[in-house]
Amino acid sequence: MNKPSATKKRRAIDDYFISTAKRHCQFQCPSTAARNDRLSEEPEKIVPGLRTTSVPGLTILEDFITVSEEQQILNLLNDATKCTWRTDLSRRTMHFGGTYCLMPPKTTISQNARPQVVQAPSMPEELSWLLQRFVDLGVFPDNQRPQYCIVNEYTGNLGISAHTENFQFAEPVVGLSLLSSCPIRFHELTKPFDGSVRSGKAGKAEKTGRRVDVGMPGRSLLVMRGESRWKWQHEIVGSAKGRDVGWKRVSLTFRYKDER
Questions:
Q1: Closest by Cα among 86, 129, 122 to 105
Q2: In angstroms, rounded to a whole number, what is the distance separating the alpha carbons of residues 189 and 244?
């Protein structure tokens, strides 16, 4: 991505984000020259903490939410009357929208035990203000508000293997990071590759060898478009290195799917 001129004031979010309207077939990366025409006639929006990265199409919005808003989200996630953490994985997770596979206990006697498909609850009304902020700042179009969210809680030395988000979802894919800061490692692929961690296919993606670590402060929003969405895998390295006692990161990954 070309860097803007030093004399240009970084104000409008559409200076950095590209349109999703012209996605190439077969999941090819959208043109990085595309512009978000949807915002061209809207009032200019100020976005504090906007920074680009060396990963094409990857943008970070720091201080996307306030400390009190962060606590509000955490209170919701930890309210057992409204939300349920799944504990069948090494880390706690939670889903909104669609279905997910509940893995059988590792101690199960049956060798034929299979994952249980579970219907996830819809996006909580308590997060509607956050979805509206996505729209107000041009992260998602008003008619493409994300219906799906995966919540992951990382503690100690927990991480997640390198992967791309399922190609059935559109771009952008965004991740809201809460609590402790954490680097996210990106791996460039030779071509777009849709393979999940659970299926074991993610590890078979052909990499170029280029690797970039991107720092994610708490309360920041990571936005993946273009190549960063389709042609780069991302991971949280499972290591306690650099993590103090009590270190904890909670991430919410939001995705939109065209269900017409």
A1: 86
A2: 32
Q: Specify the residue for token string 């808003």.
A: 69
What does the pLDDT look like over 44-79, one tens digit per residue?
444 558 889 999 999 999 999 999 999 999 999 999
Q: Stretch 245-254: mean pLDDT, rounded?
A: 97
Instruction: Report residue 61 as tokens.
Output: 């919005």
